[in-house]
Amino acid sequence: MSSFQRGVGGLGRVLLGAVRFSFYVVLLIVGRVLVPIVSLVVVCGLILFLFSLAFLRDCLGLMIAGGCLTVGGVLLQVFYQAALRLVAPEGVVIVSEL
Asked: CA 82 → CA 3, 24, 45, 94, distances in Å?
């Protein structure tokens, strides 16, 4: 392997690291807005589901909408956390807030 090939390979790793770090920063910034909004949607969907389950059993569409909001919001948060961990730089420990 020539020194030119090693240099090109090193440059590729540096560029890939820069792109991953850029995605990481963008996800951190977007997450500051996305996570509270999605958490609010999850809570509203859960309240809607439980209310329709307890008092409006004949409104099946309302119950399904609440369940879909809840499950969809939780899945969105799980995929966001997975994407954040995927592009995080090496040595970074992501601590999820409760």
From this structure: 37, 12, 23, 11
